[in-house]
Amino acid sequence: MKLSRRDALAALAGVGSASLAGCSGDGSASLPVDSLVALAETLYPSAASGHREFVETYVDGRTRGRPAEREALAETVADLNGVAREWYDSRLPELSRADRDSLLHEVGVETAAPRRDGTLAERVRRVVDDLLYAFYTSPTGGELVGTSNPPGYPGGTASYHEGR
Amino acid sequence: MSRAPSGRADLLVVGAGPAGSLVAREAAAAGHDVVVLDAGPRFDDEDRTERMAAHLRPDEGSPWPRDPERDGYTTGGRPYPLAASRVKGVGGSTLAWHGMAPRLRERDFELRSRHGVAVDWPLSYADLRPWYARAERALGVAGAADGAEGPPREEPYPMPAFPPSASDRILAEGAEAVGLSTRTAPNARNSESYDGDAACVGYGTCRPVCPSGAKYTAERTVAAAEAAGARVVDRAPVRRLRVDGDRVTGARYTTPAGEHVQEAREVVLAAGGVETPRLLLLSATGDHPDGLANSSGAVGRYFHDHLFAGVGGRVDRETRQHHVGFHTTESHAVYDEADPVVGIKLEFLNDAGPTPVGVALSDGSWGDELADRVREAYGGHLAVGALVEQLPDPSNRVRLDPETVDDAGDPVPRVEWSLDSRTRRGIERANELQRRVLEAVDADPTWTVDAETTGPAAHQMGTTRMGADPAESVVDPDCRAHDLQNLWVAGSSVFPTGGAMNPTLTIAALALRLGSRLADRLSGERD
Ligand SMILES: Cc1cc2nc3c(=O)[nH]c(=O)nc-3n(C[C@H](O)[C@H](O)[C@H](O)COP(=O)(O)OP(=O)(O)OC[C@H]3O[C@@H](n4cnc5c(N)ncnc54)[C@H](O)[C@@H]3O)c2cc1C
Ligand code: SF4
After folding, report:
1. Which residues contact B452 (CB under 8 A, 6 or more apart)?
2. pTM of the entire structure?
3. How far is CA B514 from CA B105, B333, B480, B484, in A?
4. A129 touches chain B (CB under 8 A)
5. Distance between B187 CA and the closest CA of chain A, angstroms
6. Which residues form the pocket of ligand 1, taking CB atoms under 6 Å from any ligand atom?
7. pLDDT of the residue at A28
8. What architecture does CATH give domain B1-141+188-271+479-527?
């Protein structure tokens, strides 16, 4: 199922960044988009597609006007790429999906709690959680698990009483 | 903004929740000088969506900041979760509330006459009926007059009802099989745009925060009061009332910058069911050694709440949970029964089971594995909840705890509370009905909230009870303290009994009635 810009805007609306999302495009230069897209491909179910537009729009909107947030994100991704290079000789975008998955496990992301100034695992967990939040509060993410109007997405007041 | 006092006001209101803001709006609209002091801050509208995001992420706690230094409390008996049961700030606890807005039923005003238990209200349903209609307009209630078994209404709801949900339709089959009638749940939530506020758009997070403004919060009433000329001061907790003989002259309050006294001709306490009695107890003087308005000894006593009872289960059908965050169907079928004499309102939940994002952020995994788990955890949930009445008991009470003090050095409130056997039987009866409804639709029960695991519904009632007899009650049927000429109370602390209906519509009806009478009284004083 294809993720769209509309999905990203919906997810953004759900974190209070909707007003910033309209001006997507410029200003995303310093974001490690390729690596974040690679991460999203690993984090989202294989049935999802359209990661690039979704991630670009979401992350840009989410960090726009919040330079410290942007910097922390770039630094965490750079550190994770550093480890990827050490252990797998490549950065995230060049790794296979399976290797990215192993890398996240090996860094300890599965059991880490999200923390902004924490260990690498905790910082990566924060990025992972944000990408998962975006996905599971978007209409397409919701559809993939059985709801067209997941909490956090203002999907109107028809869907709750439709159906059998 | 300046938090310094105004000159002597016509009316001082303590607390900017629905109770205080409705009284303030009525008096200000009649041209009187009104000052409202609230202990908590004003919350910016702009942050609402971020608060929702914080709520949806597990482990981020309440989206409404709590301040344990300012809001300390202790408990005795069954632990009462006070911090989670109120919000301090402009708008009060309606910032977090669910927005369910039923009227009490006729029976609720007449427990002593009908069943020989507790007390009658000194008012009847008929006395409150026109005020209920006004309250429904003030809060913006969407509903349908479809319940066969009353209580009688004189006019339609201000907005059309939200239709029953997909899961309501499944549960209604079960209710019918068990012989329980159902009805539309009234919601203080916009089913269409209302008075300039947007219609509900289905964020599904009403409790504890609605990002769209479709759910009523008392911020709306505060805005209306301010537009009518009232002055509303935030971060201004009142520490003591000042008295001279049988009149209150004003209140001492603190602000981030210092301490002040606001004088006023009339004073309304609307600080919620715990802080209102606490303030009366803290304000003891030589003439009023047991606290203000307390010659009956009833201040702080008869504390009661509604108890939650519920059973949840799963079916192999699409139940569409969490599309919206409010109930659309309820049942009053056993409410008026007498075995036991305990009101029970059954509610069909639309938010049973976990949310997709909640599972996604607490599981740890990712990819297909996570999506499988989210799908498995999310689908097919059904649940029937209930509010169960607790009758007032003088030993359940709010008192001062001299052992623990707040940020100003004042004793914190101590909530001493326990469950009696009648309430337990009511919870058991609710559970039995809930199980039967679920079984009738072949749902496998997965959880039960019973008499052991129950908790309060955040409706603090009874602590300044209303009555005709000054020896037995704190305020008279007009909500004026028996002991003081110009001190009034708005809020559920005046409820002699609380039925099993969420209290805020009744709070609003009483507040509008009080506001209108105070407006007339002040006009009389002025003439
Ligand atoms: C999670 C939750 C869900 C709820 N759901 C429902 C529902 O669905 N339906 C329903 O009817 N009710 C519901 N309620 C209850 C409802 O919120 C309350 O009944 C209602 O807000 C009470 O109104 P109030 O104005 O009396 O008190 P509050 O709304 O609590 O406001 C009191 C105000 O007084 C202020 N204050 C306290 N002490 C002082 C002081 N010393 N000086 C100055 N100010 C002070 C506080 O800061 C606060 O702003 C819910 C409550 C919670 C917490
Ligand atoms: S579902 Fe609840 S939170 Fe969402 S818009 Fe409607 S009232 Fe607000």
Report:
1. none
2. 0.96
3. 21, 32, 9, 16
4. yes
5. 14
6. B 14-20, 37-40, 85-86, 88-89, 92-94, 96-101, 207-208, 237-238, 270-272, 275, 279, 458-459, 491-492, 502-504, 507
7. 42
8. 3-Layer(bba) Sandwich (3.50)
